[in-house]
Structure formats: C-alpha cells, structure tokens
Amino acid sequence: MHSVHLHYTLDAQSAPTPGLVSHPLMTLLQSIERQGSISAAARELGLSYRHVWGALKRWEQELGNELIVWEKGQAARLTEFGRKLMWAERQTQARLAPQIQALRADLERTFAVAFDPDVHVLTLYASHDDAVARLQEHTASQGLHLDVRFCGSVDAIRALNEGRCSVAGFHTLETPSANSLPARTYKPLLQLGKHKLIGFARRQVGLMTAPGNPLKLQSLQDVASRGARFVNRELGTGTRVLLDQLMDESQLRADSLRGYEDVEPSHAAVAASIASGRADVGLGIQSAAVRQGLSFVPLLVENYWLVCLKSALEAPSLVSLRAQLQSPPWLEALAAIPGYLPHTPGDIKSLKKVLPWWYPVLLGNN
C-alpha cells in the first residue's frame, strides 16, 4: 500500500469551508474541478501557471498516480484517482467538522482571554446545527466568543446540568405530545423554575436524497417500502430522537429501514454520505442538503432552542448573546441560511409556556 503524509492547516481564509482545515493540493484540485483549466485555476488562486503546473507534477510523483487528464486543447479534468481523492477529502472534512470547529473555538477562546480583558467568552454545548456554526462566526467579530462543542441534544443539556457549559442547544418538534419520545427524552433533563429557554430559530427537517430524488421518496414509509439505503444519526442526537418518534407514528420498526444502524455524527456527514453514493437517503436539515447539491423533501419544522440556568440570565456573556441574537445583521444572516427562520430570537421563555408536554401536569394540578 502506498504511504503518503498530508499536512493540513487550520486556516479560515483559505479553507474550502470557513473554519475548517485546508491542504494546498486539495484546494488546487477543487479549483481545477470548478474552473476546468489549469490557467483559470491559477488565476483564481493568485498563482502563476508555472507554479500550479509544477505543483501538480510534484504531487503526481509523490502520490504515484496521475491527478489530471492532460489533453492539449481540452478542458482539464480530474482522473479517476483525482476524483477518489476529492471524495475522500469531502468525506473527511464533513466527518471532522464538529471536532475541527471545537479546536478552532479553543484557540480563539485562549487568545481572546489572553489579549482582551473586555471580551466575553461563552461555552455552548449544542446539537450540530448550521445556524449555531454561523452564529459563532458572527459573534466573534462582535466581541463575544462562543466556545462551541457540538454533541447530541441530550448530551448538551446534561453538560449544562453538570456545569460544563453555560448554554445548551437542542431541538424538538413545535408541539410534541406529552407521551412523545421527545417529551420522554427531554422532560427529565429540564426543570421548571431552574431552566430558561432563549429563542433562537426554526428549521426545516426532511429527507435528504440524491440529486433529483431518483427513488421518488416522499416519506419514511417510501424509504422502507422501496428498500432505500438509509444513513442514520447517532444515539443521543436530537435527530435520532425525532426519527424514532416519526417511525413510531408510522408504525415502522428499526429493521424496516435498510441502514438504520449505519450512523454518521452530523447532518453534514449524512449529506456527504448520500452525495458520495454510499447511501440513498437520510433525515436532516435543508441547509446540509443544499450545500452538497442534494434534493430535499421537507417533512416538518423544528424549533431550535438555547437553554440556560435561570440564575445565569444576567451574566454579561448571556446578556451579550441575547443582544446579538436580536441584532439586524444576525437576523439577516440567519434568514439567508436555507431552511431557517428566526424564532423569537433572544427572548426569554419559560418551559411551561413553550414546551407543551407540561400542560397535562399543570392542568391536573388545578
């Protein structure tokens, strides 16, 4: 087996996806793939044609395989090896995105505290979400550094209750019944009088499919009946809780979905799996589907909430966060993300008025 070492750089400016890692060869191949010629790629990257040509030749020698189909007068295109290399790159970037973003947040927090005594730092454990990642970028320029750790919704709220973060992010149906799986999952973790919700966003959730939805999937029943290859989320994630609730409502068992045990750590990783052809469909958010060029079949709208302890509401970092959530620039940025809309952003909400699974208990006490 051929062995080669690739050294990546954490660089928000040059990385294909801001905040992730980049490698000069991968950046070069992506540019050639987009532009269709070496000279156009060189111009896009601000490099000379000679430099790009030489770099490609050096990498072909290092990797032991040709990367570009060299035909005079024809548009440059990646070889089969080059396409497989790019596929591996996209899969790796998607799978490592939460960990890399956490590393970036660690570095930002360290240097912010070291050099600016007036900066605010807020630790946020949250279910993986594109709007949270965008919020992290937005607030950093406003003097509020969000130390974001992406994890499942259940683990995020547990982290809040154990004092490992100041705010947790989780998502749930707008009106889950008192006997629903979301209610049974989250209700024991949230206490009336102790926790407060902060309005954040609504987002579209649905089926992410291959471009054009070739299997014509419109529901989980279609996924099951047509034997489509499904890719799931891990236990403890809010999307897994949602899926199991939808399956229960549709009277589907775990073995009804081909690939129910095949899991990925994020919406981006699920989308990348479908884009690569390894799976046909997965449950996820619209923005992840759009980013990978997939088709999207909307099924429902979720509320994405931020939750904190009532005792922490007046902390400077939380006051700053709420102000940022209500600022026009952030509202504009949020609305630009496919499938997202602001939902009472920055407003403080009580559990019993927003999460309807407490209603039967409250009515029974009257």
Describe this structure in words.
- The relative contact order is 0.13.
- The protein is an alpha/beta fold.
- The N and C termini lie far apart (72 Å).
- Helix 4 runs antiparallel to helix 10.
- The protein folds into two domains: 9-91, Arc Repressor Mutant, subunit A; 119-364, D-Maltodextrin-Binding Protein, domain 2 (3-Layer(aba) Sandwich), CATH 3.40.190.290.
- The strands form three sheets. Strands 5, 6, 7, 8, 9, 10, 11, 12, 13 and 14 form a ten-stranded mixed sheet that branches. Strands 1-2 form a two-stranded antiparallel sheet.
- Helices cover 43% and strands 20% of the residues.
- It contains 15 helices and 14 strands.
CATH-defined topology of the largest domain? D-Maltodextrin-Binding Protein, domain 2
Task: List the total number of helices.
Answer: 15
Give the C-alpha Rg. Answer: 23 Å
The total beta strand count reads 14
Percent helix, as a range, is 40-55%
The succession of helices and strands, N to C, reads: EEHHHEEHEHEHEHEHEHEHEHEHHEEHH
State the gist of this model.
The chain is an alpha/beta fold and 366 residues long.
Break the fold down into its secondary structure elements and pairings.
Blueprint: E1 9-10, E2 21-22, H1 24-35, H2 38-45, H3 49-63, E3 68-69, E4 77-78, H4 80-115, E5 120-126, H5 130-140, E6 144-150, H6 153-161, E7 167-173, H7 181-186, E8 195-209, H8 220-225, E9 230-233, H9 238-249, E10 263-264, H10 267-275, E11 281-285, H11 286-291, E12 295-309, H12 316-325, H13 328-335, E13 340-342, E14 348-349, H14 351-354, H15 359-364
Parallel strand pairs: 5-6, 5-7, 9-10, 9-11
Antiparallel strand pairs: 1-2, 3-4, 7-12, 8-11, 8-12, 8-13, 8-14
